[in-house]
């Protein structure tokens, strides 16, 4: 298994992995090749992939606002789950953020995703039941 920074050349495989992992993607919006390329240029090292031979089997995208870091779009191919890959990717995302001086990390996990919640708690992440997640979107493709 090889863990490495992704480049825009990895984009087709990234979209295929998200599909295999059943992670919703917006290829005409925030997940378009142009948008991903722009994010990669602004935040080199924040798009991380796990590869078995030449196949991408896991990924994570880190981001931050200068104060708090976020670990987003954690996806593992169904055939590679329960092997510690999500933990390896999470640690790699945290490391990338620490290199930028970020020391607070956040995750958003859907309530139905018990396995991810259990892993996050095992890794020291705390659930905050008093925080509500709200979004405002300017279009369907975002």
Structure in a nutshell:
Helices cover 30% and strands 23% of the residues. The chain has 4 helices and 5 strands.
Number of domains: 1
How much of the residues is beta strand, in percent?
A: 15-25%
Here the CATH topology equals Aminopeptidase
Q: What is the CA-based Rg, rounded?
A: 15 Å
Q: Which outline best applies? A: globular
Characterize the largest beta sheet: strand count, sense, and whether it forms a barrel: 5 strands, mixed
**Spatial order of the strands in the main sheet?**
1-2-3-4-5
End-to-end distance: 32 Å
Q: Unreliable segments (pLDDT under 50, ≥5 consecutive)?
A: none
The H-level CATH homologous superfamily, spelled out, is Gcn5-related N-acetyltransferase (GNAT)
Tell me about this structure.
This protein has 142 residues and is of the alpha+beta class. Helix content is 30%, strand content 23%. The chain has a single domain (2-122), classed as Gcn5-related N-acetyltransferase (GNAT) (Aminopeptidase), CATH 3.40.630.30. Strands 1-2-3-4-5 form a five-stranded mixed sheet. The chain starts with a strand and ends in a 20-residue tail after the last helix.
């Amino acid at each position: 298994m090889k863990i490495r920074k992704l480049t825009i050349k990895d984009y087709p495989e990234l979209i295929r992995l998200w599909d295999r992992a059943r992670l919703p993607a917006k290829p005409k919006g925030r997940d378009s090749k142009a948008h991903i390329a722009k994010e990669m240029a602004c935040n080199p090292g924040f798009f991380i992939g796990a590869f078995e031979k030449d196949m991408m089997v896991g990924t994570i995208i880190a981001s931050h606002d200068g104060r708090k870091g976020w670990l987003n779009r954690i996806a593992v191919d169904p055939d590679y789950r329960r092997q510690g890959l999500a933990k390896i990717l999470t640690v790699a995302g945290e490391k990338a953020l620490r290199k930028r001086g970020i020391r607070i990390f956040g995750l958003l996990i859907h309530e139905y995703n018990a396995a991810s919640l259990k892993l996050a708690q095992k890794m020291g992440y705390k659930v905050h039941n008093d925080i509500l997640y709200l979004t405002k979107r300017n279009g369907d493709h975002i």
